[in-house]
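Thanks for the sequence, V.! I ran Amino acid ABC transporter substrate-binding protein right away. Repeating your input here for the record:
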Amino acid sequence: MDGPVILDRKTRLLTGATAAGVLLLTGCTSTAENDNGDGGLQTITEGQLTVCSESNYPPFEFEQDGEMVGLDMDLAAEIAKDNDLEVHHVALTFETMVSGAALDTRQCDIVTSALTMTDERRSVMDFSEPYFDNQLGLVVKDGSDIGSVQDALDSDARVGVMQQTTGDAKAKELGLNSVQFEDVLMFQDLESGGVDAVLDDLVPIAQHSEDYPDFVVVEEVQADDQFGVGVRKGDTAMLDAVNATIERVKEDGTLEEITETWVPVAHQ
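Predicted structure:
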């Protein structure tokens, strides 16, 4: 899949993602694992696929009308459907998920939360095949003197990043004066002047521009960044099941349909 692109330096971000049909997230977790189907696939709770994600990272996962929706939620629903399971969603902090603790302590069967696959994260969880190619963008308020990463460096601008994300790592690599946030409150800080810019994934930036129409991307920042589904280390049955679904939705066009529904930026 081609990554999202911003057409020029001062092009306003496109918005208006259309909500897709949403599955009702039901059920409750238990501490025991249960066999499903032919006994090969085990889940925390019988008949359920317990999916962990953040609660507010649109358009990948966010709450809408009391339900969790988004690109990752639709993908999780496809995985559950292929294995005759119902989806149960658990909202956790990003740090708990990327550390592997949520999987190790059986809080979830899989993690779908716009997870970039890195060597560090592979040491604590196994990853599926990639399902999304990600890019970063440096966003400022319209009228800012910052027109590029170099401008941010030269002016020692305060650049908001979400901690333990690709944006966080890239800001350090570039030598930016980064300010870490636990969640997407960094966009509110940009609007109020608490930070001068934000470095984050292009897709969530575009989504947040619905609330902040004066945000503009001034530079696209390249990143070797692909998203995958995280599973418990060594759980080959779950990994195989997830990969089988990803292969299917790529081949039958379902993944393209899901992506086009939720990604509110222009593509070439």
